[in-house]
Amino acid sequence: MHRYFIEMAYNGNKYHGWQVQPNAISVQEVMDDALLKALRQQVHVVGAGRTDTGVHASYFVAHFDSETPIEDMDRVLYKINRILHDDIVVYTIKEVNTEAHSRFSASSRKYFYYIKTQKGPFSNDLTHRPYHELDFEMMNRAAQILFEYDDFTSFSKLHTDTKTNFCKIMQAEWIKQADKMVFVIKADRFLRNMVRAIVGTLMDIGRGKLSIDEFRQIIEAKDRGAAGASAPPQALFLADIEYPQELFQSQLTKIPPL
What residues act catalytically? Predict the structure, then answer.
């Protein structure tokens, strides 16, 4: 058996997330079909994580197993990208150790959330422009509180199959970028809907609906109902996934999508 890692990216606007689901088109389903046609064998693609409906990935990793080795990698890569629609691209396919797993071997993941501060006709389907002014400094102060905790039940989608709601936050900050504010968050793992729930709650702080102390109380409540509404999905990008070098070392230059 031969295992391959795929480095790819996708615009999630037309898809109901990464994972295959009944009666809805997903990125995973499209990838399985493209590989079937390119390799002429049925394979199942396993992603590094799940993205919600409408969420994008400027960098994503998935793996699949093949009974036979891929002889002409460049040709297979060319065929897959010809088959895929323009909103999905495969950058590389690399053989890895059979013990490497796109999801369970990952050591960290990083997300970007883009908020537009000015009205404009472009990138509206890739950013979010709130109706209210947001206090950049206050949202950054609140973001630093995330480092004090490891249980993020208050920002997790209810009734998931996750065994634990503990995550290690490695980076959490707002960055000003031209006409945008970008929330950057990195952790060893993320819960379902976690980033959008955090952003939505931080936006409540930015518009003065919540205080810093109340944000801390929300985390300690371990209750999704205590936190703010989830931010819209179209502005969220999975931007990076890291692995131990001995398992998989990417050569791609990973840059912010906007």
Answer: 52
What residues are paired with 24 via a beta bridge?
21
According to the 3-state scheme, what is the secondary structure of 36-49? HHHHCCCCCCEECC
Question: What are the extents of the domains in the chain?
Answer: 2-105, 108-238
The class (CATH top level) of 108-238 is: alpha beta
Residue 98, exposed/middle/buried by CB under 10 A (0-12, 13-18, 19+)?
exposed
Tens-place pLDDT, residues 70-113: 999 999 999 999 999 999 999 999 999 999 999 999 999 999 99
Per CATH, which fold does 2-105 belong to? Alpha-Beta Plaits (3.30.70)
Cα angle vertex 239, ends 84, 50, to 5°? 65
Summarised one tens digit per residue, pLDDT across range 207-233 is 999 999 999 999 999 999 999 999 999
Domains 2-105 and 108-238 share a fold: yes
d(CA 49, CA 245): 19
- The DSSP call for residue 88 is E
